[in-house]
Amino acid sequence: MNDEVRQARERQIALDGEQAMASLAAEMVAMACNGADAGLMVERLQARMRGAGYRPIGVVGETSAFDPVIHEVMGPWSGRRHGAPVVILEPGYHTPTGGERSWVKAKVCAP
Predict the structure, then answer these.
(1) Is the pLDDT of residue 98 over 80?
(2) Which of 57, 67, 69, 79 has the maximal Cβ count within 10 Å?
(3) Closest Cα partner for 48 from 70, 31, 71?
(4) 106-109 and 71-73: which strand pairing?
């Protein structure tokens, strides 16, 4: 693939991402303004993420084994070693585009 084609493809991916983000934001704002239940909003958001090819890393409140590749530690923690138990504060996501860094890290803390 030559540079022009690669650059055009990257621009289109960025534009598609911007459009998806704006659409999702509009949907969430409309739901909130119309008094939607927070649980329903989370379900809708997760469905949109799955539909776009994102796969979650962790579930809020669950305990997981620490992996510095997919977890970002929030706050002080002296036992920061691979495999140590952590609690998911905010899920991360594997992105559908792949590539060198194909995820958003889950935010974690010590139990």
Answers:
(1) no
(2) 57
(3) 31
(4) parallel
